[in-house]
Specification:
The protein is an all-alpha fold and about 180 residues long. The protein contains two helices and no strands.
């Protein structure tokens, strides 16, 4: 009987330790989840800023193209050396803007990829968090069942001891001594 109580008691301690580990794991996952949310928000802001820069540069690019076409038309009509210098400067500016746009497009692509990876990782962490919560519920139920079993065993031991005591007293009254 005592060995059953000891086994139930040691199982009870294992459950508490597992529950503590589960709580610690839950806390770590929540921290990681918060970090991922923050990182995702930051990347979204960076992506929006890059898209805004890209839009502005695209407008500048189109404006420069229009200016280039106008300048080329003026050069053909005037054939002026000053106009050729201006066209050269516009071409340099246009080339510079094209390079900047290329860099921004590459940056946008990279940020979009990072954002997708972060969102995927966040979904995986959320799924893992739900699994851990389910395991924790199972552990609580298991722990509750063990506590109930322990209470039943304690009650049975008390009843058994009471019956043994009454039995001894009965035999002592009857004059018979039985060693139990």
């Amino acid at each position: 009987m005592d060995s059953l109580i000891n086994q139930a008691h040691s199982s009870l301690h294992l459950t508490e330790r597992e529950r503590n580990e589960s709580e610690k794991s839950k806390s770590e996952i929540l921290t990681l989840l918060d970090e991922q949310h923050s990182k995702c928000a930051q990347l979204s802001l960076q992506l929006q800023e890059s898209e805004l820069k890209y839009s502005k540069l695209l407008i500048d690019f189109k404006t420069l193209e229009i200016q280039k076409e106008e300048s080329e038309t003026a050069l053909k009509l005037k054939a002026d050396m000053g106009a050729q210098n201006e066209l050269s400067k516009l071409r340099e500016d246009l080339q510079c803007h094209l390079q900047t746009i290329g860099l921004l497009v590459a940056e946008k692509t990279e940020l979009s990829s990072i954002l997708s990876e972060t969102q995927s990782a966040l979904k995986n962490e959320s799924s893992h968090h739900i699994d851990l919560q389910n395991k924790m519920k199972e552990m609580k139920s298991y722990y509750s069942n063990l506590e109930h079993e322990l209470e039943v065993l304690k009650s049975e031991k008390i009843n058994f001891n009471s019956i043994q005591k009454n039995r001894k007293m009965y035999y002592l009254k009857c004059g018979k001594i039985i060693i139990i």
